[in-house]
Amino acid sequence: MSSDSNENNVKKGIGFGFAFNGILLAFRAEKNFRIHILIAFVVITLGLLVGLSIVEWLLVSLCIGFVLVTEMINSAIEALIDHLFPDYHEVAGRVKDLSAGAVLVAAICTAVIGVIIFLPKIYHIIV
Ligand SMILES: Nc1ncnc2c1ncn2[C@@H]1O[C@H](COP(=O)(O)OP(=O)(O)OP(=O)(O)O)[C@@H](O)[C@H]1O
């Protein structure tokens, strides 16, 4: 193995370290991220209880990832905006609203998919 590819592997390793640090940061500093993780655990537990098909698990996994990713990007944008615009600024407000709106869109899509997947199964168990 050449020294160039060794160097690349080391850089990749460090990159993963930074990326995991990003997840840790989100977990430690962002209440909403922790709430989403908690909801994800509840949904996974519910999925195990009611029994989901492979396709349903794929959709649930995608939805969980979709919400967590948008929440992390929203947090990153908020942090940057707070740094760039410590005082009130119209652009800052617009960017934050758009970014929060993206999380809401992800959450609404996820809720709709969740209801379509889980409601008939829960109804079947209850009735
Ligand atoms: N510097 C600013 N200039 C103008 N409006 C702002 C500014 N900071 C925040 N806002 C407005 O206040 C709203 C809430 O901002 P805030 O920073 O409290 O985020 P948040 O939605 O409460 O997020 P979180 O709960 O994740 O901290 C924004 O969506 C925006 O409309």
Automatic annotation (TrEMBL):
Substrate binds at residue 71. CDD domains: UDPK_IM_like. The chain crosses the membrane at residues 12-29, 35-55, 101-119. It comes from Salinibacillus xinjiangensis. This is Diacylglycerol kinase. Belongs to the bacterial diacylglycerol kinase family. The keyword Iron does not apply. It is found in: Cell membrane. One of its GO terms (biological process) is phospholipid biosynthetic process.
